[in-house]
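Title: Prediction job returns without error message
Component: structure pipeline
Severity: low
Priority: P3
Assignee: unassigned

Description:
Job completed but the reporter wants confirmation the result is attached to the right record. Sequence as submitted:
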Amino acid sequence: MKSRFSMCITAITVFAALGLIGVRSAQAQTYSVLYTFTGGADGGNPVGGLIRDEKGNLYGTTCCGGTYGAGTVFVLDKAGKETVLYRAGGPDLSK
């Protein structure tokens, strides 16, 4: 029968080995600004996540700016060109 000390050492060794196996080296993240909103007609303060389509375009929303000051829905192409698809707060043209 193993002593308690021996069982503790074995358990510590196993946990240490499992910890070393699961450790990955940290990879540095690099970010770059794709577009800077002016807060004017192009919108301001982007919110929520982005959705990428199969061509690499990014779709998102802003909470401010736009023609009516209530935000926009936009698309940003791979070249960094932003296009407003919808301006919130405008007149309802569906009626």
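Comment from assignee: result matches the submitted record. Helices lie at 4-22.
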